Structure formats: structure tokens, C-alpha cells
Amino acid sequence: MDDAVTAERRERVLMISPYPPVRDGIASYALQTVRALRREGLDVEVLSPGPTAAHHHLDLRGPRGALALAKRIRDYDRVIVQFHPDFFYTDPGSARARLAESTALMVPFALARRLEVVIHEIDGRFGDPRRPDGQVARRLWHLPESIKVHTASERTSFINDFGVDPARVELIAHGADFRPHTSMDRAAARASLDIAPDAFVFLGIGFVQPSKGFDRAMEAFDGLAVAGARLDVVGSVRTDDPDMVRHAADLADLAASVDGATLHLGYVSDELFDRWIVAADVVVLPYRNIWSSGVMERAALFGRPVIATRVGGLAEQAAGQTDVRFVDDDDELRRAMIERLPLADVPATPSWAEELPEGGDLRAELQDRVRLRASSRPSLSRSTRPGAGGTTPAATVAEVGLRSAPLRRLPRVGPPDTNHGRRSVRLVKKLLRKATAFQVDPILARLNELQDATIKALEAEARATQARPAASGTEGAEPAATRSAG
Amino acid sequence: MSSIEPIDRRGRIAVVPARYGEGMVGGAEIVLAEMGRRLAARGWDVEVLTTCALDHFGWENVLPAGESVEGGLKVRRFPAVFEDDPERGWLDHAVATGQPLGLVQQQRWINAGMRSPEMYHHLLDHGEDYRALIYGPYVFWPAYAGSQLLPEKSVLWTCLHDEPAAYLDVFQPVLSGIAGLFFQTEPEHELAHRVSPKLAPHDVVGCGVEVPESYDPQGFRERYDLPERFVLYAGRREGAKGWEEMLAAFGRAVEGGLPLSLVTFGSGDVNPPPSLEGRVFDLGFLPDAERDNAFAAAEAYIQSSRFEAFSRTVMEAWLAGTPVIANGGSDVVRWHCERSGAGLVYDDEAEFVECLRLVAEAPDMARRLAKGGRDYVLESYTWDRVLDGVEKGLSTWTTP
């Protein structure tokens, strides 16, 4: 028996991260890393922000969370932090909160024997050296032995924004430790998801929130549901923030107005996540902003091609992958989707240059066309589309649009303006805004919902009114009571 | 020169803009200043009564009080008083959002903003020296307070917008009990009748616009290192002008592939989101000649404000041959667009984006659209025509 080996104490590692079964990209990422480290023979324990499969859990937010973490951190030889501001800061947007919480976080960071931090997201403005919170953040980021990021541009930004020694900021491959969560092949995955074997599937997957840009994919997909093409957006809402919940509802409305698009809203396990990727033909990542993407790594893991917007460090992350097409805007996104279709005979969206009116009242013609085109394009901001396919007569669109115009012209109700010529007054206004947001914001959201609902009702009524004479003209007179009951 | 003869130009008149001087942003104030200079050129004895402030946010007294001669006119400046009144914030908000306020609260509101007690007392002491006092716009304290002090001599360059403040009881005497009201457009005139059933004597006189002799769009782009293709917004960058909402919609148009940039000049914070980095160009304040060049260099001019009594910037765009994309919520600008045929209106973000796409994809068509704009301005809004109306009003409503 090799007593020397067994008696030798294994290196104790603490991973601080969200963790499964909580569904979260960083949790999945951490799981893969834990698996790899344990396979190396290390003694790895996990501490997560809430109850999970982790060995420990602790609410890490705020100074109290940071100080509680400090009590535990000395027990380990090495500490790995999967860092996202939401895990440690109660209100990452507040400079005052960041000042207090970064100061407290310096304690566990300083006490750790060996500290590695993997940065998943951070706002470079938090390191502004002209502000007290920025100075503290810079001191905080001097403490880890190593800081890991996924792309070269993230590395450059982090070094510049926080004044960190470049030698301590390392690049690591995002998907280095990724393993598949499903063993299904494409046919089985499709069968399990009720997808026809010959369908062409564009997939958008991840948390449903504006930054993911799933609405962009839906708008780009409009009119492409030819020859069995479909767009599936799969995910859940990460928080119960009213803006996020509202976005999901708007996205569902948008999906209903785009032929072939479906929003699958709900919990997505790691296994289901991978199954969707296996079932897809192309994974679409129309992000508005992101540092790096776990979805892109999982698509690569299963050899699925990707169409992604050129944001954050995605281009660098994809450097080693073979089938990633980057796009700069939604027009290019649409063209990239069309290129992927097996049958690319898709009716093109007419350009303004191709449908110029001649003679007559130029302004009136252009104004009518603006209304018609605006109402026939799917849009997250305007889900009262008369019907896909553009078959609604221009006169109907104009009439319907005129009915709702006074309401549509009303700007969305937003929070009170905090702008002011004097800095002190601006500051006070901003403080007041924060103090009253919990009461004001739900009212604002409801007002905007009422505006949308009224527009929808008015336009539906206008369309119904327009349809009635046509119907009665073709089908003969119908008793008024019957019509109103129908 | 005037086409109305004879005009009795005896007696001193004062134009009373709340701010006057170089570097000031404000349509009505600029018009009153120019009107004063041009009335003086027609033989009137004109002086300017104004405050020492140039900025309408902080009302800091940046210029010395007292008498001076500026631009050929005698100017009397009085300190602006703008106190940290804790009531003002909520009263402003209450008025802006149309909450019902009693008369006492309305009076507190109008007095919680900028005031100029010294100007008021100058009028109290020397009101008899003036034949007429021309105030504007209606919503500023000098117009409210001064016109109530000397109503028979007070004439208002009204600048009425369809906003909650217009319906406040405190402004009813201003609209109904003074010597006369000048309106700039028919929609403003109609609005005034809706707001006040018994209007003071009034006339629609239009608004004068300077006609530049020439434009240098290419030089302008080069001097400011601007992209070849851009749309323009000029004026106050603030919520009341629809700036933030327009900027967000422009961002979504860019996300959709719009190949245009946005150039802006004027006052207020621009605050472009990170996604618009490199696509929004803030030029701050521009000299007059460069302002004109900016309008000529733009592919389209955006008027995002719902609250316009006239919209001089729209006229400046049309003079430069540039089409206009305007918020359809403004009756006045919609009226201009329909009459001139040189602008499109939008009722929501989707229509705004479509207007921008038209400009991007069919620039020749957009230029064709703008064609009637210049003639429209030249036919309706030259200073000579406007001054004829103003002189007619002054001679009818006031006596030397």
C-alpha cells in the first residue's frame, strides 16, 4: 500500500459560483470546470449564492455576504471565483453600493491563499480612477493571483479599465472543459421535440432578455418560413424584474406575428438545452451585447453552425471554430439566414429604391407607404400587425393606422427626467428617482401596457369594421344580431 | 420693406425675451431678438428687456445687469432669480403630467421658476415710457407677470403648445386680457381657441426665417470630420423635445442595418448608448453659418418634438433643400409637412424607422420630396411678410 500517496493531503479547492441544478450559463460553465478539476484529483468543493447541488451556500451580496465569505475562505488552498457583478453587488448600477461592497470584498480576496477569478462580465466604467468606487475596485482587482478572461479584447479592456498588471490576466478557452449533456442524435432529438425530420431549424436559446436579441432573430426571420423552415426561441426569464417579464410577453406577441417563429418559454435543463442544439440546423446568436458566449461553445461541441452578431469578444472566441458567420446588423442577419436555407427562393423585402412612386402627390404616396411598410414589418415595439404576408390593402392599413395614431404618437411613459443644468440638482433628482422607483416603475409599466392594449383593441375594431362590408357584400345580408354575436 | 403704409411708428416698444445674447439656445427668444432688430430697422424705437441669464436650466446670471448696446439695440438686463425652491420639482412634474392643480398651486408653480423682480419693478416704474411690450413665450414668468402688470400695452409672441401648462387657469388672463396675441401658424391659432374661449385680439403672422446666401455642405463635413451620410437633429437634447425616445429608436434602426449616422448640435446631454458608439456626433454649439451648412449636409432633418409652435429648424432644413422627418404628434409640424409636401411624419417607432430607411435606400427620392420645402418657406415665412403682420398688430392694438 502506498501510504505516502494516500496520506498526502490533496489540494483543497473552493469554487464560488452559481451551480446546477440552477439553470444558468455560468453554473454550467462552473460544473464543467469542477468536473475537470476533480478528475485531476483535486479536492473541490463548491459554494453557491443560494441552495443548489453545491456543498455550501451563502448569500454573497453586500458587505455582509463578503465578510461571511471571508470566514470560510482560509480553509482552502485555492479559491476560484466565477465572477459576475450580480453575485456580489446588491445594485451594481449604484456607485455608493459598489464602494461599500468592493471594500468588503477586499477582505476575502486578501485572505485567500491562492485566488483565481474568472471574469464573465464586468462594466469597465466601474474602474474609473476619478471616483472613489473606481479606486476601490482597482485595489480589489490587484488582489487575485490570477484573473482569467475568455477573449483578447476582454483582456485588453480589463487591464486598461482596472489598471491591473497584464502578467496576471490570462486568456482561457471558454469551452475548454465542456462535455455534452445529451447522447441523442439529431433524429432522436427532433422526434423528442416534435420537430419534423426535414424541417430546417434556426435556434435561439438562452435567457430571454433584451440583451440576447431574440426579437432581432424573429424580425429577420419574417417571411422565411418557406419549405418547412422554422425559428425556435427557447429559454426562460432569468429574474422577475418587470422589464424582463414584459420583454418576454412582448416577444411572445412578436412570435405570434411571425409565421414559423415559436417562443418556448420555460425551464430548460442542461440536457434539454443540448438536445435543442442537437436538433437544430443553425444556432442564431443575435446578441446586443455580451462578453463571451457559452451557447456558442455548446454549438461548437455538437458541430452546429452559428450565426452571431459581431459584439463583445465573440469574434475572438470563435476564432478556432469553423462554422461561425458574423453579422453586423439585422439586414445581414436576415441574409445570413437565407443563405443557410436549403431552398433560398425567398421573396425579398422590397427596397425603397425599387418601389418609387411616379407622379401624383409624392408626399402623400410616400407617407402611405411608410405606414404600410411599418405596419407590415414585425416589430417588438408594434405587435399589432395586420397579418403576415402583406396582403392587407393599403387603404385598410392607412385607415387602421389613422384610428390608432393619436395613441401611438404618445411617447412611452418613462421615469421622471433627472436632467438639470446644475450638478447638485441632478444628483438629488437621481437619488429621489432611486428612492421612489419601487413604487413608480410598476405604475409606469402598467400605463404602457394599457396604451398597447388600447392600440390593439382600436386597430382590431377598425379592421373588423372594414371587413364587415366586404363580408356582407360577398355573403349576402346577415342579421345584425348574428354579426355582433360573431 | 413694409407693404403696409402708413404706419404710425411713434412710441418706444420693448421686446422682452427671457434670455438674449450670444450662445443662447431657444427658438422664441431668437425670434424676438431678430424681430427687435428688424423693427428698429423699420423705424421703431426698440429696446430689449431681458435677464442676465443665457441658460434656461440654471438661470445663472452670467452677464452684467444694467444697460448696454448689443446688435444696435439698447438692452436692459435684470438679474434672474432662480431659487432652490423645494416645491418646484413636484410642481413642475404635476404641471407636466397634467395633474389637476388649484389656482394657488398654479401661482406657486409659476413663481417657483425663474423670476425677475427687478425687471418687474422697472416695468412698474417706467411702464408709461413704452407704447408696447412684446413678450414670449407665454409660459415664462416675464410674460405672465409683465403682461398682468401692463395688459393694455402687452403683446404676446404666444408660442402655444398643446401641453398641460397651456390649460392652466393662470394663463387665461394672459390669453384673453392683453392687447394682442401673435400666432405663427393656423394650428397654433386653432389650439388657442380651444384653450381659451375668449381670446384677446390676435392674428396669425407666421415667423421669420433667415435665408442663407449659400451653403458649404462638403466643407462642413470635412471641418467636423463627419461621415458622408447622416441625419440631423438641432436644438435642445431633452425629454420634452423627444430626444431620448428618438435616440433609442435611431439605435434600433442602426441595429436593423441603417447605414446613416446622427449628427446633433444644441444644448443638453446627448447620452448615446454604447451600441451607437461612432454613430452619433455631438457638435455642441455651432456658429450661424455652420448651422446652415449642417442643414445642407444632412440627408434629412429630424424633428422629434411634439411641442412646437412653429419649428424654425424645420424651415431651415427646407431652405437648405433637406427633407424633414417629424413627430406626427405635433399638429403644427404635421401641418407644415402636409402644406409643403416636403416632409414625412411618424406616429411610432416603426414608422420612424421606415422613414429613415427611405432616406437611406432612396436618397434621390428623399431629395425630391424636399423640393417644395424651400419655396414654401420663401412664400410664407420671410421676415418682411412677418413684420408687416407684426406692425399691423402693433398699430391696431396699441397707441403711441
SSE arrangement:
The complex is a heterodimer of chains A (486) and B (400).
Chain A: H1 3-7, E1 12-16, H2 25-39, E2 43-48, E3 56-57, H3 62-73, E4 78-83, H4 85-88, H5 95-111, E5 115-119, H6 132-140, E6 146-149, H7 152-162, E7 169-171, H8 186-192, E8 200-205, H9 214-221, E9 229-235, H10 242-257, E10 261-265, H11 270-279, E11 282-285, H12 294-301, E12 306-309, H13 314-317, E13 324-327, H14 330-340, H15 362-376, H16 394-409, H17 423-475, H18 480-485
Parallel strand pairs in A: 1-2, 1-4, 2-3, 4-5, 5-6, 6-7, 8-9, 8-11, 9-10, 11-12, 12-13
Helix pairs in contact in A: 3-5, 5-6, 8-11, 9-14, 15-16, 16-17
Chain B: E1 12-17, H1 27-41, E2 45-51, E3 66-70, E4 73-78, H2 86-96, H3 103-112, H4 117-126, E5 130-136, H5 141-149, E6 154-157, H6 172-176, E7 180-183, H7 186-195, E8 202-204, H8 217-223, E9 230-236, H9 243-255, E10 261-267, E11 280-282, H10 288-297, E12 300-303, H11 312-319, E13 324-327, H12 331-340, E14 343-346, H13 349-361, H14 363-380, H15 383-397
Helix pairs in contact in B: 2-3, 4-5, 8-10, 9-13, 11-14, 13-14
Kindly summarize this structure in a few lines.
With 486 residues, chain A is of the alpha/beta class. Chain A has helices at residues 3-7, 25-39, 62-73, 85-88, 95-111, 132-140, 152-162, 186-192, 214-221, 242-257, 270-279, 294-301, 314-317, 330-340, 362-376, 394-409, 423-475, 480-485, and strands at residues 12-16, 43-48, 56-57, 78-83, 115-119, 146-149, 169-171, 200-205, 229-235, 261-265, 282-285, 306-309, 324-327.
The CATH architecture assignment of the largest domain in chain A turns out to be: 3-Layer(aba) Sandwich
The secondary structure category of chain A is: alpha/beta
The major beta sheet of chain A can be summarized as: 7 strands, parallel
> Helix/strand-derived class of chain B?
alpha/beta
Q: Compute the number of strand runs of chain B.
A: 14
